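Subject: sequence -> structure tokens, single chain

Hey, anyone have a minute? Need the predicted structure for the following. Not urgent.
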Amino acid sequence: MIKQLCLLLVLLLSPSCMMAQIEDKPYMTWDEFVQTYYEGENGEEDEYLLEEQRERLQVLMQHPMQINRLSRSDLLQLPFIDETQADSILSYREKRHGFLSLGELMLVNGMDYFTRSYLSLFVRCDSAMLQSEAYVQRMREQDRLIAKLVRGTHEVETRLNIPLYSRAGYKDVENPTATNYYTGNALHHVVRYRYHYKREVLYGLTFEKDAGEPVAVRGFYPYDYISGYVLLRPRGKKWRVVMGDYDLQGGYGLLYGRQVYGNKAQALSKVSGNVTTFRAHTSTQESDFFRGLAASYCSKGWQMMAFVSYRKLDGRTQTYRKLDGRTQTGTDTVRTILTTGLHRTLSEINSRRTLGCLTSGVQIMYSKKQWGIGLDGYVAHFNSVVWPKVQIYNRHYFRGRTAGNVAANYYVSQRRWNCQGDIAFDANGHIATQHSVSWNVGTKLNIGAQYRQFSPRFVSLYGKTIQQNTRVANEQGLLATVRYLPQKKLELSGYLDVFRFPCPTYNSRFNNAKGIEGMLQSLAQIGAGWQLMARYQIRSKQQTYNYKSLVLKEYVMRHKIRLSSLFKATRGDVAVQLDAAYTAKQRGTSSKGIMASCRGSYKASKRVTAKAFMGVFFTDDTDSQLYVYEPQLLYTSSFNGYAYHGMRGVLLCSWQVLKSVALSVRASSIHYFNNSSISSRLDLISSSWKNDLALQLRWIL
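Reply:
Had a minute. Here:
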């Protein structure tokens, strides 16, 4: 008894408890987070959509939030934190007068081991002590807007990708045309400047030159892509405003890009309240963003948001051929809106920024802690007629000059269950609707379900939601999810999505094509340094194929299996992974593939870190292509796909040259055993080897 009393007295008088100067380290690395959280569903299909969000989370990881000072909205920026968990964290912090360490997250209701591990990447706990008078006075001085504009953190990043090979598009041609050569060199260069004062003032500027694009000619000043933004959200104020380039996310995305990403088994457990929010567009993604002004105001449960945007899009116009063989522009009717952002050939340059689009919208929402209702909508007007050439799969696509949507939404959040949904109408009265419910059965089991029905004629220019089709239209589906934690460090999750396309799609020329998609995953943490994961995915979908003069329908079924093991030590980690795929078509053909890979990292010192990846793959064709995560430079894409027979190697070294200067070098190589060339047309490489070198320099002040 005396020993216990002495121990208690030591703890109470300990300076570490009084001042709480505890430096906590994340429970996992960024590589672990991306591979575990984002590849629950088909990571390769969501890569385009998820790139911007992963980059935004990387910025948050580089500047983790102070857990004793963050707000509810700060927590809800993280896709794996729902409103109930955010409230639990803030309630615990208020009762305990702050966190002394991240280890206290174990005591927060509703926080499982894996969610705590994710959260540890984005928060820190190093200043829980009481604020002194000097600190309070200093904070008052910094609270002035002028001070916030200059006293924050400045970051400059430049990245140069150097291909150690030559593509066909860079070679001289005897008879140049608008489509048979690239007008620029093969280098890819990015320059970015970012500033942030906490999360109250942000501004930045981005320049990007893609490989093959010219510099300082043909209207490039100096590069093709230039993007900038200024975001103001002062602490304690009821308003927010962004100027320049920004992104919109709203609820489950019938009108704008969705807020929930990652594993479908986890997607339905987060209550977003269907609030439309805006964020600064910080990535190099050259499509799916707005350019203009957006502002919001919140007071007594009401939120009002308005935005206006004007962008010049890439549009390929209708053409006709003269008698002498020359191709000329016939009208200003736009046949295709291009979204790649590439302007390398003369044809791509001629289509650059030919279509103006003016978009404006509003949202009004009233919300309480447990429920909310809202109404939002927008109108978009193009300065030219958009009229895609009619095909069997696109007969209900948008055509004309003006489009618009209006949507009503709701959410209800209770202790153990929540539901939310919305219904949207386009300018012609066509409907899209979806509703979801999530139920926490105790503390270890979560069950979710979503029903969606999108009219084949529904038009949504900016919608991106949980869907199987390429656009928010022409789909009916029912999604069921489950997430179960039978033990403290064991997670079982899965989903089953049953869907139908009432009208023809690009891959199916028949009505009522059907399909299913499912996943089962087991994730286990054994001790402090060993993690095991097993995942099985299946997707079966009806498609059409041509047989002589007939058009027939068949099921195409794809199975994927992943087994991985991660071992962590003090200075690094090693992950071993096996991926396999098997695709079977109803007509009797099949394709199979397998890939074995190993990924590791080693921290040689406080300033030097090295990461490596090695993989060998054997697939029959692209139907059995396999996607794996490999080490990447900051703010770049993470998943690559591999087909046929070959091997892949990556080496990434990072050196903290000075306290504020970091240099990273990435070398990668791929060699095909059964191909003497890589890719085709202008991207053709007349070799079985493809070697790349990338340099990244970051300066933070």
